[in-house]
Structures are given as structure tokens and as C-alpha cells.
Amino acid sequence: MKIAIFIGSDSDHGVVKDALAILKEFKVSFGLEVTSAHRSPARTFKLIKDYEEKGVEVFIAVAGKAAHLAGIVAAHTVKPVIGVPVESSSLDGLDALLSTVQMPKGVPVATMALGKTGAANAALLAIQILSLKDSSLVTKLKEYREKMAAQIEAKSKKIQQKS
Length: 163
Ligand code: RP5
Description:
Elements: E1 3-7, H1 17-25, E2 30-34, H2 41-53, E3 58-64, H3 69-75, E4 81-86, H4 94-101, E5 110-111, H5 115-131, H6 135-162
Parallel strand pairs: 1-2, 1-3, 3-4, 4-5
Helix pairs in contact: 1-5, 5-6
Bound molecules: 5-O-phosphono-beta-D-ribofuranose.
5-O-phosphono-beta-D-ribofuranose binds near residues 11 and 63.
């Protein structure tokens, strides 16, 4: 098991769908858990230890509102922690963004963009971290970028044909 993904609620599940698809595409093993910094703190602490024992190298924490999940995970591990704020509140995620990004000096959280985009980038950043020790992932990451560039070129041609 290489990556642990914690989501603060089952209502965050849709936010990580693309991220999970990316991890599957890269054939990187992951665990997914619903756990909350506030509503299930004891479970969260236990999961951090359990996943460390399973050999997890990167944690991804996804949460909305007063989003302390990534910070709490970062406080309990020295593995890299990637935080994804979710726009699930009446403040459209500004609360979650600030709660996740404004970590005190000494306990970093690599904070992504809000929502689905941030979750997908969290998966890619986690793969990039793993690729430091696994050159097959470097190859796959380069192929992923090449595919993306080809898609942009194809979209440009399509727009030109329509114009
Ligand atoms: C956060 O509150 C969760 O991460 C979720 O984004 C938000 C709403 O959770 P639910 O009330 O839908 O469970 O803790």
C-alpha cells in the first residue's frame, strides 16, 4: 500500500473520483477511508498508524468546512501530507482552503486547489513523490503529460475547424 486517502465525509466521495481513476491508471495501490478530524479523531489517529504500518509513503487528506484533517494527519506523521480543501460549505470552500493551507511553521501540508481539480493534482503529486524511488512511474508521468499535450493540440484543431 503506497498512498492513504482520507476523506472527511462520505459526501466528499465525488470529489476524489478522478483522483482514484488516476491512481488506478498508474497502478499505484491506495487505501480510501472516511474519517474526520473532529467527528472521529480516535479513528483518524489509529488509521494514520495502521497505514504507516502498511508501508504508506504519502497521505492525502480531503475535507471541507473547518478542514483540520490534513493538519491533524501532518501532526501525527513525518510522511508527506497533501491537503485538498473541499467547497462543501456556504463559504464555497474559502474556509477549507484557509484551514488547510495556513499551517504553522514546522508541520507542512502541501495544499492543492479546491475540489476535484485539487484531488486529481493530489494524486499526481503523490505519484511524483513515489517516482523519486520508482523510475517506472517517471516514465508513466512523462507519457501522461505527452497525452495531455496531444489532447490540447487536438482541441485546438477542433476549435479552428469550427471557427
Ligand atoms: C467536512 O464537512 C467534510 O469533509 C465535508 O466536506 C463537509 C460536510 O460533511 P457532511 O456534513 O456532508 O458529512 O467535515
